[in-house]
Specification:
The chain has 337 residues and is α/β, with parallel strands linked by helices. 49% of the residues lie in helices and 10% in strands. It has two domains: 3-161, Leucine Aminopeptidase, subunit E, domain 1 (3-Layer(aba) Sandwich); 166-178 and 213-327, no CATH class. The structure holds ligand AR6. Ligand AR6 binds next to strand 2 and helix 1.
Length: 337
């Protein structure tokens, strides 16, 4: 995945560059800044002293000292006041300037902490949203940096925050669709018996009858169509380019080109779901696409229900979906070769 949110200590990340949430003096501090300076050793402070500080929203670079990364990019996030003092633009600028520096220094992987979301008080859900949106937009605009792999490293579980409203909406949806799976054995047995008597999905022959308006040739062709062919057809129908599609799907270029080259390529479920989201398929079509890769959206899988919630509500932002999946402890969408 070009953008990956992970829970880790950023000082341990084996990447080309890590980003430090510093202050304007670049003389070290608490939080992640303190942890980075401690792990990098005194050489880092000596290099920082030569940089003449750093303005809020800007970024500067040093070596990584004793850290496993080659570089540390120091950026200064805004102090949160009330959101009405240009905080969002300054925070965006931190990500943009840091990514430009990483690209200028030939980095192919970079790890960010959630800048400003600790001592500087930026609400974590908004900080995460700005981080994912800004990094995504940057990667879409800078096609040359398409292979840049970006980690957003969060330290504590509380950082996987999505807005209260979204969280509640998803929690209710899960409750409605998942609850019976957790009912006591007796109720579960009754539900099983009921579902054995009901036909949820019409058999293929019914579908042929229902779709009487389509020519037999068309229907047979669609039944034969592979996963990869359906993706390519949908890309054409929607007038998308390949990069638009794989970036919206949070897939790396190499993985996507496998799909382009091999019409029988069988993706992982998270990749198949990511493509359904990137192509903004309505629920039935998303299920059809998944089925072509041998998967289904299951109501006994919390992650599937969360993705379904977004599709049903016409919300196709993969990074918002991933933030929600993280919040509920589920595996994110996207993938790499
Ligand atoms: N790895 C990953 N994330 C971490 C780590 C770590 N080792 N340690 C903390 N975080 P903060 P700010 C998370 O306060 O809000 C310093 O004194 C933490 O949970 O480090 O931008 C500077 O010198 C939070 O989500 O940075 C400045 O004066 C995020 O990193 C000021 O703090 C950022 O928290 C900057 O404040």
């Amino acid at each position: 995945m070009p953008i990956e949110i992970i829970r880790h200590d950023i000082t341990k990340m084996q990447v080309d560059a890590i980003v430090n949430a510093a202050n304007e003096s670049l003389s070290g501090g608490g939080g992640v800044d303190g942890a980075i300076h401690r792990a990098a050793g005194p050489q880092l402070l000596a290099e920082c002293r030569l940089l003449n500080g750093c303005r809020t929203g800007d970024a500067k670079i040093t070596s990584g000292g004793n850290l496993p990364c080659r570089y540390v990019i120091h950026t200064v996030g805004p102090v949160w006041k009330d959101g009405l003092h240009g905080e969002a633009d300054l925070l965006k600028s931190c990500y943009q300037k840091s990514l430009s520096l990483a690209a200028a220094y030939g980095c192919s992987s970079v790890a960010f902490p959630l800048i400003s979301s600790g001592i500087y008080g930026y609400p974590k859900d908004q900080a995460l949203r700005i981080a994912t949106d800004t990094i995504r937009d940057y990667l879409i605009e800078h096609t040359d940096d398409a292979d840049l792999h970006v980690y957003i490293v969060v330290f504590d579980k509380a950082s996987f925050r999505i807005s209260e409203k979204l969280y509640t909406g998803i929690a209710e949806y899960i409750d409605d669709h998942y609850a019976w799976e957790h009912a006591d054995r007796g109720r579960r047995r009754i539900a099983q018996m009921e579902s054995a008597c009901a036909i949820e999905e019409p058999p293929a022959e019914c579908m042929l009858a229902v779709r009487a308006s389509a020519s037999l040739e068309e229907v047979l062709h669609e039944m034969d169509e592979s996963f990869a062919s359906m993706v390519m057809r949908k890309i054409d129908e929607k007038g998308m380019t390949d990069p638009e599609c794989y970036k919206k799907a949070n897939l790396d270029r190499k993985l996507f080109s496998k799909l382009r080259k091999d019409s029988h390529y069988r993706p992982k479920k998270q990749t198949a779901l990511a493509l359904a989201v990137a192509l903004e398929l309505p629920l039935e079509e998303a299920k059809e696409l998944l089925m072509k890769a041998g998967y289904a959206l299951s109501h006994s899988d919390k992650g599937d229900i969360i993705v379904e919630y977004f599709i049903v509500n016409g919300l196709y932002d993969i990074f918002e979906i991933n933030a929600a999946l993280y919040s509920f402890g589920q595996v994110p969408l996207g993938g790499r070769a």
